[in-house]
Amino acid sequence: MTELTRLTAAELAEKIHGREVSSVEATQAHLDRIAAVDPAVHAFLHVDAEAALNAAKAVDEELAAGRGPVSPLAGVPVAVKDVLATLGSPTTCGSRILEGWLPPYDATVTQRLIAAGLPVLGKTNMDEFAMGSSTENSAYGPTRNPWDLDRIPGGSGGGSAAALAAFEAPLAIGTDTGGSIRQPGAMTGTVGVKPTYGTVSRYGLVAYASSFDQAGPCARTVLDAALLHEVIAGHDPMDATSIDAPVPPVVDAARRGATGDLSGLTVGVVRELVGEGHQPGVLAAFEAAVAQLRDLGATVVEVSCPSFDLALSAYYLIAPSEASSNLARFDAMRYGLRVGDDGTRSAEEVMSLTRDAGFGAEVKRRIIIGTYALSAGYYDAYYGSAQKVRTLVKRDFEAAYGQADVLVSPTSPVTAFRIGEKVDDPLAMYQVDLCTIPSNMAGGAALSVPCGLVDGLPVGLQVFSPALQDHRGYQVAAAYEAARDAADGGALIHRVPELEVVR
Questions:
Q1: Do residues 169 and 78 touch, judged by C-beta distance below 8 A?
Q2: Catalytic residue check, 180
Q3: Is 213 exposed, middle or buried (0-12, 13-18, 19+ CB in 10 A)?
Q4: Residue 273 to residue 311: CA distance in whole angstroms
Q5: Is 70 exceeded by the pLDDT of residue 502?
Q6: Active-site position among 89, 134, 138, 156
Q7: Which family, according to UniProt (predicted)?
Q8: How far is it, in rounded angstroms, from Cα 444 to Cα 128?
Q9: Which of 71, 391, 399, 491 could form a disulfide with 116 if both were Cys (CB 3.0 to 4.6 A apart)?
């Protein structure tokens, strides 16, 4: 069954729906792959083989009865980042403070996966409460990059990206607050998409920074990401920030883009995102990708977004401020970890002991930063000023989209670094989010598609699209992907070194 794990999600769906392969066989193949290689990769925090196989069996029974698949991806397994609530399965957010917590409900994204007939393999590892750029901040140990097990897979959603690169899952769900889908995609040679804010429900997504958090699809191809995007997107009355608008035609755009014609499209290279701080090989790969877009018929222009230079600093004031509010709910009184409750301590003492034991260093750091930024006497100087920068970032995007249909940049300024290399240098770690944060500040769409290897490690091309125009990015990315694969003689992902199987 090993070959089933190498198929794209679209190919696997075609075989399942044509009854060449059963969903149970496909799901079991991926469960076997997880058992074989995940002890080395550590992409998963929890695997629910029984639930996944039961869901797969239900799809097979529907198809055997002559009823068509309930969705284009029915029967194709999926992994879910451990920040989305799953009824009956633990949701820990990579934190000790939620160790073993079983949610009493499913997140809307989880509900939609189940309704569409996708067997959920399990929950993937992540930086604690999505705070990190390397998946080293998980309380349950780091995830390793399948391209080089001594290196990080990106973060905070490194588990989902690594599961794809290790062929443990054909599809995965991530969340993106400041680049946590796209940056791991770039570092693992996979595709990661941040949809327009508000187009995928946040109901049941454990909040880090509510005005930034956005769930989205992770896959090994642009088409697979688009198919998953259409499954999870759409208005949800349970989410007050959900946009009541049609889902952009992302699948049609991906199929159209794969024909390889970008004539009539203008691509804007963001000047501020290709300068200082980038690894030379990353810039060279990006420039080659831009040249390929030009060869496909796109008009390439340079655009300037001056406020992007301030976006990183502003983000690291606004997001921690929201986190300091959101994480106040973990009080040891209602659910989760409780430390020191021996009958002699006050509720305040138990709360303090629990938070000290339950939150990791990076989470504590961001809570402290956010609380300080919101405190009396500093609110206007820090939080208020950062929000003004956010407005300037939005205006820069608007002006740039007056000159170009999509914008492009490298996804990450560096390739995957070694585990432990930056863990004691928070500022160096934050710099890895340099290129991804602006789209979270503005709320538009952005995706990362692999654009080559630098010293044997993958790099990503980031494509920005205006709000509710997600399909533009899919078209450009699919066109580039098709041209790249044709030039390379096959998909980049199949160059991942074979992992040692644990017997």
A1: yes
A2: yes
A3: buried
A4: 11
A5: no
A6: 156
A7: Belongs to the amidase family. GatA subfamily.
A8: 25
A9: 71
Average pLDDT, the chain: 96
Residue 422 structure tokens: 């930056």
Active-site residue, 81 included:
yes
User: Quick one: pLDDT at residue 500?
Assistant: 81
- Contacts for 25 with CB less than 8 Å, ≥ 6 apart: 1, 4
Peptide bond before residue 375 is cis, with ω within 30 degrees of 0 = no
For residue 121, pLDDT beyond 90: yes
Q: Rounded CA gap, 7 and 29, in Å?
A: 11
Single pTM value for the model: 0.97
Q: Where are the alpha helices (DSSP H) in 258-307?
A: 280-295
Query: Rounded distance, CA 89 to CA 114, Å?
Result: 14
| Interior angle at CA 199, CA 12 and CA 369, nearest 5 | 110
Please give the share of the chain, as a percent, with pLDDT higher than 90. 96
- Asked whether the predicted pLDDT for residue 1 surpasses 70, the reply is no
Active-site hit among 23, 71, 81, 89: 81
Q: What is the mean pLDDT of residues 345-367?
A: 95
Per-residue pLDDT of 182-236, as tens digits, reads 999 999 999 999 999 999 999 999 999 999 999 999 999 999 999 999 999 999 9
Contact 86, 103 (CB under 8 A): yes
For range 136-146, the mean pLDDT: 98
State the Cα–Cα distance between residues 167 and 33, nearest whole angstrom: 7
**What strands lie across the sheet with 120-124, from one edge to the other?**
44-47, 120-124, 78-81, 171-175, 215-219, 191-194, 445-454, 457-465, 406-410, 266-270, 299-303
Work out the angle at residue 461's Cα, subtended by the Cα atoms of residues 455 and 466, and round it to the nearest 5 degrees. Answer: 165
* Cα separations in angstroms, 214 against 233, 288, 321, 444: 11, 30, 17, 11
**What span, in angstroms and rounded, lies between the C-alpha atoms of 186 and 417?**
12
Structural domains present in the chain: 9-308+391-494 (3.90.1300.10), 311-384 (no CATH)
Write the burial class of residue 443 (CB in 10 Å: 0-12 exposed, 13-18 middle, 19+ buried).
buried
Average pLDDT over residues 4-14: 98
The values of phi and psi at residue 216, to 5°, are: -165, 175
As given in the structure block, the two tokens for residue 158 are: 């490194």
Residue of 23, 180, 307, 409 marked catalytic: 180
Of 352, 324, 326, give the one whose Cα is nearest residue 339. 352
> What does the block give as tokens for 163?
């599961």
How high is the pLDDT of residue 276? 82
CA distance 369 to 430: 14
For the cut 80, the answer to whether the pLDDT of residue 503 exceeds it is no
Could you tell me the two tokens for 251? 């699948």
Residue identified by tokens 């290279």 is 269
Indicate if 156 belongs to the active site. Answer: yes
Average pLDDT over residues 267-278: 94
Q: Tokens for 129, please give them.
A: 């409460």
Q: What is the DSSP letter of 129?
A: G
